[in-house]
Write a structure and sequence with these properties.
This protein has 134 residues and is mainly α. The protein has three helices and four strands; from the N terminus they run αααββββ. It has a two-stranded antiparallel sheet with strand order 1-2. A two-stranded antiparallel ribbon has the order 3-4. Strand 3 and strand 4 form a beta hairpin.
């Protein structure tokens, strides 16, 4: 009796090929998502550092979570490049405060929308713009 083994070889090759293809897809997907997660983690760490520095400057009372308007005004009057260096920020930034309402509303302090680069916009206004608010 003669056995034909070509069909079995072909099916094993097909299975190995599919496994290699699946492995390549898994590696490719993990590389893509890993980079995104590391960027998110990096931005989160930078935001936490800036937040900590703002607490150290006294902008927010850690016990009551209230904004110190005197410190806010002092920071808003500081030179943009100096503040950027103090906070350890490399790119443009805008520090703004939102209410805890749903949906959140931009809090206007001393008629300013925020502290930072006027090239960025917040709530339809340039960051740091003087506006008349409620």
């Amino acid at each position: 009796m003669v056995r034909n083994s070509k069909g079995q070889v072909w099916s094993i090759d097909l299975v190995i090929g599919l496994l290699v293809f699946a492995l390549v897809l898994v590696i490719f997907y993990s590389l893509l998502t890993g980079e995104r997660d590391s960027k998110i983690s990096s931005y989160t760490n930078k935001a936490e550092t800036v937040t900590q520095r703002m607490y150290e400057k006294g902008l927010v009372n850690p016990l009551s979570s209230e904004i110190n308007e005197v410190v806010y005004t002092t920071l808003s009057e500081e030179e943009y490049e100096n503040l950027k260096q103090e906070l350890g920020i490399k790119g443009d930034f805008c520090l703004f405060i939102e209410t805890t309402d749903n949906p959140p509303k931009l809090l206007i302090i001393n008629n300013r929308t925020g502290i930072g680069s006027p090239r960025l916009s917040v709530g339809g206004f340039n960051c740091g713009a003087n506006v008349v608010g409620p």
